[in-house]
C-alpha cells in the first residue's frame, strides 16, 4: 500500500477532510480532530486502542514495523510502517478503528451522519 491509496481511503470516510497543520505533514481529520497522521506517505499514525496496553499489541506482533507515536503514544497512538510486514488489510482496519474512536469523542452534534 502506498500513502496516496491510504489517503483516499481516509478521505472516503463520512466527514473526513485533509489538512496539513505542519508543513509537509498530511493528516486526515473528522470534525476538528486528527484520526490519521499520514506524513510523507511512508507510515501512518493511528489510534490503536484506548490506552498504551492495548496499543502495545501492535508492537508485539510487528516489532519492526510498529512503534509508539512520539508525544501521543501514551494515549494509544502507534505509527505503522507501510509496505512492511503489516498486511494492507490490517492497516486499513487500524485506520477504520482510529476513525471510529475519534468520531466517538466528538460532540453528538458534530458527528458525521
Automatic annotation (TrEMBL):
Molecular function via GO: DNA binding
Coiled coil stretches, renumbered: none
Keywords: DNA-binding
rRNA-binding listed as a keyword: no
Protein's UniProt keywords contain DNA-binding: yes
PANTHER family: CYTOPLASMIC PROTEIN, CYTOPLASMIC PROTEIN-RELATED
Superkingdom assignment: Bacteria
InterPro entries assigned: YjbR, YjbR-like_sf, YjbR/MT2646/Rv2570-like
Protein name from the UniProt record: Putative DNA-binding protein (MmcQ/YjbR family)
Signal peptide: none
Pfam family, one: YjbR
Amino acid at each position: 500500500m502506498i500513502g496516496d491509496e491510504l489517503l483516499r481511503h481516509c478521505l472516503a470516510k463520512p466527514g473526513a477532510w485533509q489538512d496539513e497543520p505542519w508543513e509537509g505533514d498530511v493528516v486526515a481529520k473528522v470534525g476538528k480532530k486528527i484520526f490519521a497522521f499520514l506524513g510523507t506517505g511512508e507510515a501512518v499514525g493511528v489510534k490503536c486502542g484506548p490506552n498504551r496496553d492495548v496499543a502495545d499489541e501492535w508492537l508485539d506482533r510487528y516489532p519492526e514495523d510498529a512503534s509508539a507515536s512520539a508525544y501521543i503514544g501514551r494515549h494509544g497512538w502507534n505509527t505503522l510502517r507501510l509496505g512492511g510486514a503489516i498486511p494492507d488489510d490490517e492497516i486499513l482496519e487500524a485506520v477504520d478503528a482510529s476513525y471510529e474512536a475519534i468520531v466517538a469523542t466528538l460532540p453528538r452534534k458534530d458527528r458525521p451522519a
